[in-house]
Write a structure and sequence with these properties.
Elements (H helix, E strand, L loop, with lengths): L2 E8 L3 H17 L4 E4 L20 E2 L3 H4 L3 E2 L6 H6 L2 H10 L4 E4 L3 E4 L4 H14 L3 E3 L4 E6 L5 E5 L4 E9 L14 H8 L4 E7 L3 E3 L10 E11 L2 E12 L4 E2 H16 L4 E6 L6 H12 L6 H9 L2 H9 L9 H6 L1 E8 L7 E6 L17 E3 L7 E2 L4 H22 L1
Parallel strand pairs: 1-2, 1-10, 2-7, 10-19
Antiparallel strand pairs: 3-6, 4-20, 5-6, 8-9, 9-10, 11-18, 12-17, 13-14, 13-16, 14-15, 16-17
Length: 411
């Protein structure tokens, strides 16, 4: 059935491209490996092209002990891959490939050009220079393993090939227009793997009775608590955005994973926004009392513009029933937004859930059920917070899968 490759990579997103780049480097050093990368879309890395608002926050500089706290649901699974191809190593690798990088606020790493597609072109150039075949518009419709241990691959355009090793790096379900339509889950399931329940993460949470007047408002240095069935389960500090999708931005995204999961499970979810996290309730109450003493007329309407952005004053009054000078400080420290919905895969940043980590070796990314089958990136039940964590997961697991597959062939 067509040409027999040593290694076939299915999916030309972040994990697949980086896996192919690792194979290109391996070929240069040791040679003798024939590999092919199959991408279903007309271009590789379409999702990379829209990350970081088109700038691509490709990783961050945090050490493992800090980095690990942002990985879900089982960060220890990533540890081997991270140390084999760490954020520092990824940065050095991109620099070697000719892509200068810069570090911005929050330890976030971007291409110096601030163009996400430069990341894609750099990887593609390195792949082709290393002799890995790249085939686009090649949507894999069938992946099977024969009795001889060789995988057969059939594409919808009629292309067929075989491979001794296969790396599935097909992504998740987020931003399906970029090609992430869940193909890898079907391949994995067809080969006997369990798929843990999937749900959108790093997405907007939709408050009940959300109004258009909120759209476009951004808040800096605020605090938000996620409460589930009345209990606070997560608290974050930083920047928050109100968009046409709901509440998002850096800290909105951080709490969205638990928020979405709780909504799916039928639990009561609410966000509690602290507009003045730098001061205690008592300190805020004293400030309000002091400033209100100088206001003539309606003290509540007179003081709110001093405490809130102008666009939020009317919305704050409408969103806090029984608001008065007596409870103003308390309401500013705890503005409650009941959450009843969320934005789905059409706009979420990453898919939570995926191929069960119990069935994949964290030392090699190889399937424990199907020898010669490897997984990398978002297709795994592994995801991270916003801030370069998910692309680093893709790069680390992609590199480890490629290196492990190549090493098993040479053995």
């Amino acid at each position: 059935m067509g040409k027999v490759y040593d290694i076939a990579i299915i999916g030309g997103g972040a994990a697949g491209l980086y896996a192919a780049a690792a194979l290109s480097s391996y070929k240069k050093e040791k040679g003798g490996i024939e590999a092919i990368l199959l991408e279903k879309m007309h271009r590789c890395g379409l999702k990379i092209g829209i990350t970081g608002k088109g700038r691509c926050n490709l990783t961050n500089t945090k050490p493992w002990n800090e980095f690990a706290t942002h990985i879900h649901p089982k960060n220890v699974f990533l540890k081997n891959a991270f140390y084999a191809s760490s954020n520092t190593a990824v940065m050095e690798n991109f620099e070697r490939m000719g892509l200068p990088l810069v570090v911005e606020r929050g330890d976030r790493v971007f291409p110096q050009s601030m163009k996400a597609l430069d990341v894609v072109s750099t990887l593609e150039r390195h792949i082709l220079q290393g002799g890995v075949q790249l085939r686009k518009n090649a949507e894999v419709s069938s992946l099977e393993k024969g009795a001889d241990g060789v995988f057969s691959i059939i594409c919808s355009d009629g292309f067929e090939c075989s491979a001794k090793k296969v790396i599935v790096a097909t992504g998740g379900l987020s931003y399906q227009t970029t090609g992430s339509s869940g193909d890898g889950y079907a391949f994995a399931k067809g080969l006997g793997h369990k798929i843990t329940p999937l749900f959108p993460s790093l997405t907007a949470l939709k408050p009940k009775n959300y109004k258009e007047e909120f759209y476009g408002i951004s808040l800096k240095n605020v605090s938000v608590q996620l409460a589930v069935n009345g209990d606070v389960v997560q608290e974050e500090f930083g920047d928050l955005d109100f968009t046409n999708g709901g509440i998002e931005g850096p800290i909105g995204f951080k709490v969205s994973r638990k928020g979405v999961h709780s909504i799916i499970n039928g639990q009561k979810v609410e966000l509690r926004l602290d507009m003045k996290p730098a001061v205690s309730l008592e300190q805020l109450a004293k400030r309000i009392e002091r400033e209100a003493a100088e206001i003539k007329g309606d003290k509540l309407k007179g003081i709110l513009p001093k405490l809130l952005p102008a666009k939020l004053v009317k919305l704050f009054i409408e969103g806090n029933n029984g608001l008065s000078m007596t409870n103003l400080a308390q309401k500013l420290k705890c503005w409650v937004f009941p959450i009843n919905d969320y934005v789905g895969y059409e706009r979420c940043v990453v898919t939570a859930g995926g191929v069960s980590l119990q069935e994949v070796s964290q030392k090699t990314m190889e399937s424990k059920l199907v020898p010669g089958l490897y997984f990398a990136g978002e297709v795994l039940d592994l995801d991270g917070d916003t801030g370069g964590y998910n692309l680093q997961i893709a790069f680390s697991t992609g590199a480890l899968a490629a290196q492990s597959a190549a090493a098993s062939l040479t053995r």
